[in-house]
TrEMBL record:
Residues 30-39 have a biased composition (Polar residues). Residues 1-56 are annotated as: Disordered. It comes from Coccidioides immitis (strain RS). This is Amine oxidase domain-containing protein. GO terms for molecular function: oxidoreductase activity. Pfam families: NAD_binding_8.
């Protein structure tokens, strides 16, 4: 899946065109030469008007001055949650795009053109409750399509090209069903879907799943690699199904990284997201030019105590003492006098937060934040169909590795999204695709746009550091807060959830819905019925039949070797 771009929104890039929001900001930018500001009154239809804290009421706690660095989805969520508090809140964003929602890329020709946000926000409904609440309050609509993906690769001179959705395997070549590998793959898919959910069904199963595997002093749960080895899953299932799916839904870079992750967390995500359901679906923000107007209408861009500073790059953040109290000195590019704040929310990547703190970061902040790494993503909007599986043109997501393309590749694997899966993306001229990190560049004549951003890597090192993140949140003598998609699994939901957690826990924000502390709200699997037990029994018998046949084959081989003359045995060993 396309992941959150909190870090990239602060790093910025060259705008391709002038948005209506930018023009609107420029007309009212008369109060300060360094920022773009707007005066606005909260919309009476905004659900935030129902919040218990009103600006004209006497606050119960002292008013604080808060700076939010980064206007990506996390920074925008934190600002929105704080906009009805009595605190003075300022958001700094290097670009002129809020949450990657206000500067969409136009493709096609009117009236059949579409508008695509640069972070390409797509999510699963079962694991994105905070993101859906946020979009619902902003009145930003989203649309859905069935979740399916295809895998294209070449191994040992053989082409592998198959599509997957729930328990279905699709291929355009009949000969694929005549190979033993295809049936191994199909069998293991069924076995994984029916038996891996046992990890979530009972508290006893969860407790038995915990093992003391210590890495960097942090105990973790049983890993995916351990589970796959214990259950004897085939290599074709791991390499051609599980790893590509993990690289699509999470930002996992390699099989090694996947094997080091917690199996319970992974299976819990697959189940809660609906991927293991009968009809899995994925949502994206509706590609409409009206999204910008809806964000502007329901976000207080400027008031007496709130302000958004667009095209304002923060250069450093320093912790200083004033009358024995910690203050945060924030310096911005082109502004000679730094401003002091009581709290700073870093809604950027951990790498960017460390850069802003520079030598002022403590040893603990350095140790924890440096564990969260990012990778560069090149996104291409195009109509080149070479990146789409030839036998599975209906799949929403297409995964391909470098073996499927000629030599001279740029990346090890690429992920392409077929935008015409959504009715709103049906351009009459041609199909549209977004390819992340293409193995080869698309045909220049079919390129619509190209942009770059960074997204967090998901590995055991990052997940272990996440368990210690609370040790540097709002430390008494520093008042620094960190949020973003990197605090979870690299998804937009994680960015929104972490922002809501910080502002409700430390900064008196009140939200009209419950904020969940868990990165994934696991849903218990349904109880097994008669048909489930029947299928599980059949799979169990087939599995043991395979084991028995393997043992018979090994013993037969050993018996034949023992009966052969010694000279034949030595010759066979030479071969």
């Amino acid at each position: 899946m396309a992941q959150s771009t909190d870090a990239s929104s602060h790093r910025g890039g060259t705008p391709r065109y002038t948005s209506p929001l930018e023009d609107y900001l420029d007309r009212f930018n008369t109060k300060s030469p360094r920022v773009s500001q707007i005066e606005s009154v909260p919309d009476p239809d905004s659900p935030m008007t129902d919040d218990p804290i009103e600006l004209d009421k006497v606050p119960e706690t002292p008013r604080k001055r808060i700076a939010i660095i980064g206007g990506g989805i996390s920074g925008l969520a934190a600002y929105w949650a704080l906009q009805k508090t009595h605190h003075v809140v300022e958001l700094f964003e290097m670009t002129n795009d809020l949450g990657t929602l206000t500067r969409p890329i136009a493709a096609g020709t009117q009236p059949n053109d579409v508008h695509i946000n640069k972070s390409f926000i797509n999510f699963f409904p079962g694991t994105s409750s905070h993101l859906q609440e946020f979009f619902g309050r902003l009145k930003i609509p989203y649309i859905s399509t069935p979740f399916s993906f295809s895998v294209a690769k070449r191994e040992n001179g053989k082409q592998f090209d198959m599509g997957f959705s729930f328990l279905k395997v699709a291929t355009s070549r009949v000969r694929d069903w005549l190979t033993l590998d295809t049936w191994k793959l199909y069998f293991d898919i069924w076995r994984f879907h029916y038996f891996s959910l046992d990890l979530l069904r009972s508290r006893e199963a969860v407790q038995n799943d915990i093992q003391i595997v210590v890495e960097s002093g942090c105990p973790t749960r049983r890993t995916i690699g351990q589970y796959l080895d214990e259950k004897r899953y085939s290599r074709i299932f791991i390499k051609n199904y599980l790893v590509p799916m993990a690289q699509i839904v999470w930002n996992v870079q390699s099989e090694k990284d996947l094997r080091d992750l917690s199996v319970k967390q992974f299976v819990g995500f697959l189940w809660s997201s609906g991927i293991m359901a009968l009809s899995p679906e994925v949502y994206i923000v509706e590609p409409s030019a009206r999204t910008e107007a809806k964000v502007r209408k329901r976000i207080v861009l400027r008031s007496k105590t709130k302000a958004i500073h667009l095209r304002s790059k923060v250069t450093t953040v320093e912790v200083v003492l004033r009358n024995g109290c910690p203050k945060l000195r924030v310096s911005t590019l082109g502004e000679p006098v730094p401003v002091l704040y009581d709290y700073v929310i870093f809604a950027v990547s951990a790498e960017e937060a460390l850069r802003l703190l520079s030598s002022g970061a403590t040893q603990k902040e350095q140790a924890i934040l440096s564990a969260f790494e990012t990778t560069k993503i090149e996104a291409w909007l195009h109509s080149d169909s070479r990146f789409i599986s030839t036998g599975n043109t209906s799949a929403y997501i297409n995964w391909a590795d470098s073996s499927a393309f000629p030599p001279g590749n740029f990346n090890a694997f690429s992920v392409s999204y077929r935008l015409n899966s959504f009715d709103a993306y049906n351009c009459r001229e041609s199909a549209l695709y977004i390819t992340l990190n293409p193995i080869v560049h698309p045909n220049p004549a079919k390129i619509v746009a190209r942009w770059e951003y960074r997204r967090p890597l998901l590995n055991a090192k990052a997940l272990n550091a996440r368990e210690k993140l609370h040790e540097i949140q709002n430390v008494e003598d520093r008042h620094l807060l960190f949020c973003g998609s990197w605090t979870g699994y690299g998804l937009h939901e994680d960015g929104v959830r972490s922002a809501f957690q910080l502002v409700t826990r430390y900064l008196d924000a009140k939200l009209p819905f419950t904020v969940n502390d868990s990165a994934i709200d696991y849903k218990p699997p349904r109880q097994l019925n008669f048909w489930d037990y029947s299928i599980r029994s059949i799979l169990w018998m087939i599995d043991w039949l395979i084991v028995a046949c393997s043992l018979i084959a090994i013993r037969t081989h050993d018996a034949v070797i023992r009966r052969l003359p010694i000279r034949y045995v030595e010759q066979s060993r030479e071969y």
